[in-house]
Amino acid sequence: MSEENVKLVEAAYDVFATSGPEAFSDYWADDIEWEAIGGRFRGRDAGRAYMQEWFNYFDDFTFETFEFIDAGNDRVVVWERISGRARGGGIEPPPAYFAVAIELR
After folding, report:
1. How far is CA 37 from CA 5, 41, 71, 85, 100, in A?
2. What is the rounded CA–CA span in Å between residue 69 and residue 55?
3. Cβ-based burial of 13 (10 A; exposed 0-12, middle 13-18, buried ≥19)
């Protein structure tokens, strides 16, 4: 099942890249939970709002995925980078790199 999990997560990120947070959230469980920069989030609405904030803070917000790793036990780790220019000021901070652990069920 692990290869299928990786393919599912890759498909979700492809949808995010082309259609944004709303479409990405179609892949989430209704009771999704995660911890991220800014706190702990529960539910699809909270998750979409959190992700939309990234788009609101930056002009030209982009993210790249580098690797999808089967971590076993229905978990996939995604190595990614985000970047953009600060909205209003035009400052471009250095890209931020993240490892995102996703548990599928």
Report:
1. 25, 10, 22, 18, 12
2. 26
3. buried
Place of tokens 């706190």: 39
Structure token digits, residue 80: 């990614």
Asked if 77 contacts 69 with a C-beta cutoff of 8 angstroms, the reply is: yes
Tens digit of pLDDT for each residue in 44-74?
A: 998 888 888 888 888 888 889 999 999 999 9
CB hemisphere CA count around 8 (13 angstroms) = 16
| Identity at 26, one-letter amino acid code | D
CA separation for the pair 22, 17 (Å, rounded): 11
Q: At residue 2, what are phi and psi to the nearest 5 degrees?
A: -60, -40
pTM of the model: 0.84
29, two tokens: 């469980």
- Is-contact 24 51, C-beta < 8 A? yes
